[in-house]
Amino acid sequence: MSATVAPAKLGAPARRGRLSLLTRQDKVVLALMLGIPTAVHLFLVWLPAIGSIALSFTRWNGVGGLASIEPIGLKNYSDIVSIYPPFWPSLAHNLIWLGVLTLVATPFGMFLAVLLDREIRGLSFYQSVFFLPVVLSLAMLDWMALRRFARRHRGQILRERLEILREQARLKKSSGEGGNGHGEGPLGDLFGGS
């Protein structure tokens, strides 16, 4: 008995496995680059958000462990609507902000983005002007934090730096380096060297 093989159609390419532009290593790297940030985001953003929503249906002051949580249903929501006077003005202000941001700020930002995407004269200047508030706000926050830190410690940093310089001057004096020929370091007069 002889087996007959059906002839392949002429001109048809031989069928191979599915082609992919990504290698196995690329797929692993891509999965890690997407998976780790997604897991961190889910853990740090969505888990607390869902927990807050779940806790809004309970009575709990945050002290006493999870065993002291008492479910109360929609009572918190009915209380905020009925006995908390600032609720309705706050809701109205939030809806106004939502409307302004949706109908004015977002379309205006998209319009500016389209303008900046074109090749126009002075493009880098305009891009710098639009990006400057982002950079400046971070720099101002850093400056304010440093001022607050410095004000709180009232010269402690300066005293520490001066003590380091004094110690360096003492070391130079004891090793015989530098000085003015009388055995004093370069900062000896400033720090009352003998």
General description of the model:
This protein is mainly alpha-helical. The protein folds into three domains: 22-84; 85-118; 123-182, no CATH class. It has helices spanning 24-55, 75-83, 87-117, 123-153, 156-175; strands at residues 58-59, 70-71. The chain has a two-stranded antiparallel ribbon. The chain starts with 23 loop residues before the first helix and ends in a 19-residue tail after the last helix. The mean pLDDT is 81.
Summarize the structure.
With 194 residues, the protein is an all-alpha fold.
Which terms would index this structure?
194 residues; mainly alpha; 3 domains; 5 helices
Structural class: mainly alpha
Number of helices: 5
N- to C-terminal distance: 115 Å
Strand content: under 5%
SSE sequence, one letter per element: HEEHHHH
Protein topology:
Blueprint: H1 24-55, E1 58-59, E2 70-71, H2 75-83, H3 87-117, H4 123-153, H5 156-175
